[in-house]
Design goal:
By secondary structure, this protein is mostly beta strands. Helices cover 0% and strands 50% of the residues. The strands form two sheets. Strands 2, 4, 5, 6, 9, 10 and 11 form a seven-stranded mixed beta sheet that branches. Strands 1-3-8-7 form a four-stranded antiparallel beta sheet, with no helix packed on it.
Length: 129
């Protein structure tokens, strides 16, 4: 089992940047594929970015491609989401998620919330215009 704690959210002006962190406790963080999702008020949770357990594979939602970067530091049990050129439509609660992934699928990336086993409590990001 793994516990996830997000941090780094806050209020930023349009065009600004934030870096979210997701710290994992528990065993064998490197065995988990990771993802970032977000949920705006009144909307469903949506995929933002994902990274394979190996770190070799990443994937982004079209809405954030070129602006956001997902990365992981397995030695620190942490996954990051660097968010640049933020826009008001990026305002949401951001959640990280983990999926235990076998070695033979070390390069796999998962896009659906239903594919993830563990979730953090979320961190709020507000982008003012």
């Amino acid at each position: 089992q793994v516990q996830l704690v997000e941090s780094g959210g806050g209020l930023v002006q349009a065009g600004g940047s934030l870096r979210l962190s997701c710290a994992a406790s528990g065993r064998s963080f490197s065995n988990y594929a990771m993802g970032w999702f977000r949920q705006a008020p009144g909307k469903e949770r949506e995929f933002v970015a994902a990274i394979s357990r190996s770190g070799d594979g990443t994937y982004y939602a079209d809405s954030v491609k070129g602006r956001f970067t997902i990365s992981r530091a397995n030695a620190k049990n942490t996954v990051y989401l660097q968010m640049n050129s933020l826009q008001p439509e990026d305002t949401a609660d951001y959640y990280c998620a983990a999926r235990l992934t076998p070695t033979y699928r070390s390069g796999s990336i998962f896009l659906s919330p239903a594919e993830y086993d563990y979730w953090g409590q979320g961190t709020q990001v507000t982008v003012s215009s």
